[in-house]
Amino acid sequence: MENMQGNSPECITACGTDEERCSLTHQPSCHSSKSLLTEEKMRRKLQFFFMNPIEKWQAKKRFPYKFTVQLIKIILVTMQLCLFAYNRYNHVNYTWDNRISFSHLFLRGWDATREVSAYPPATGPLAIYKADDFYATIDYAYSGYANLSQAVGSYSYANEDNTMTDMELCLSQYKKGIIFGFNESYVFDAEIVETCLNITHSPSDHLLDSKQYLSNLNINFSALVKAVLKFSLKTVNFKTAGRISPPNCYRFDIDINFDNEDHDGQMLLWLDAQPVRLMCKGDVEYVTDDEIDSFLQSVLNYLVITICILSFVLCTRAVLRAQKLKKMTNTFFVNQFGRPLSKEDRNKFLNLWYVMIIINDILIIIGSSIKEQIERKDFTSDQWNVCSLFLGLGNMLVWFGVLRYLTFFKTYNVVILTLEKAAPQVARFLLCALLIYAGFTFSGWLILGPYHLKFRSLSTTSECLFSLINGDDMFATFSIMSSKSTMLWWFSKIYLYSFISLYIYIILSLFISVIMDAYDTIKVYYIEGFPKSDLQIFIGDTNIEDVSSGIFRTASNDSLGGLMKDLCCCTCSKLHKSYSSLSRGSLATDGSRRGSNAV
What we know:
Blueprint: H1 9-17, H2 19-25, H3 30-49, H4 53-60, H5 65-106, E1 127-128, H6 131-146, E2 156-157, E3 167-180, E4 185-199, H7 210-213, E5 224-237, E6 248-259, E7 267-278, H8 284-289, H9 291-337, H10 343-347, H11 352-375, H12 384-400, H13 402-406, H14 410-448, H15 458-469, H16 474-479, H17 486-528, H18 534-539, H19 544-548, H20 560-568
Antiparallel strand pairs: 1-7, 2-5, 3-4, 3-5, 5-6, 6-7
Helix pairs in contact: 2-3, 3-9, 5-9, 5-12, 9-11, 11-12, 14-15, 14-17
């Protein structure tokens, strides 16, 4: 191509007066040369933008940084998650087992059958029904607390000198709550008054008699809403000791709860133990030997945070560049062809895979930061669940991102294209199905709730109906219904038969047919060719020879700013090789669709 040294008045006139003719006929004028140059660079820019990483490597011999970063991130994040999952399992299992031990030691009436989760429940709720049982439960807890040395577990009192601390009893009562059932009258004030009392008693004297000890409180069970008995213990967990983590020191804040909110003659009883991690003061030599393992875990955390920050920056930059290219392409189409990009073509510039990567980067950075604080024991509260939520969701999205690289292959891309094609129809179908589902859920909760175990709450009703759609536990759902009311018994049969027939035989079959219809359409596209949009017609097909020919390492190396300058300025030049321009009516022809977007 030979550059001209100046612009003649004729060239300027041609650029200003016959713009469309210069663009469509490629006449040797200033504007024609400018249009051809801009069209060539724009087409190459768009072709390179929609290439996959392999094609980009062949086109420019540029190292695929984002692709490499994603591969490294998958390895590091998975290693981090495996180590954290192992430690978290030990932590949760340890705290749960200690809660069971505390229930045996301090909770009157607890037995081993309550430790097994059975459905339907093998036993009823643990509760007390007499006033004497309330005081006996407090006495039983105090006795177990005073005789802590008899426990198999290595538990100590919360004081530094291992002396027994006071138990605290907190009562929440209505300000006034007196019932005169014999003449249907009452005295009631809904204001709740909370009173707390330290139980200071020496076990060397004799066992605690809480009924006499609390006689000054004048507890009125008609007004009592709830009561909580509180105390704390300390212990050390040796199970986590090993090459990965040292022993952990804990303080368990134990609450024995008496729930009388319903005032139905049944005071529910349960124990809760909240773990708090403490700084250990144990074997110095062991802690010194463990510093290498702790250092390696910290290095892994910081590597994950660093690689996620790098991934976040690269993907955010790619998203912003894509939006700039979209605006530039839209301006080019308006100037050259008299109309902007369609909504479908504009959406092609927003890579949702990048958006998903950005989200999982944020989740993993937050989760890794919390994990590092947990391992450094900077948190006094239990943050394991919060950390696992961030790391788990982030890792899930990271592995979802692997699907994007499988879409570069025709066989695997069918799944993604089918989901993309079926998404609008599935969304509309699910909206209608959910409205019917909501009607069944609210109706079943209201009518069957008092008489059926699975319909006791709105959440359990929804879970029961969803299980029925999948054919789970049908006979039990029919048989559990109480026969106390004949009318409701018959209603439950009609209700369940109607729901099962409607969703399994009709709605579920229609749902599958919607997806299969999209799948059949995608298969036809692979045989006959995909519908072609204006943008895809302009880009055209890029074969292997074009990719490896080196043309993308010359003109396409110009920045977006240089291309924008070509769009705005008129420079006269000659081209050895001309590209065919698009006429205003040539953008409606059919052709094959290009492959997936690249990193």
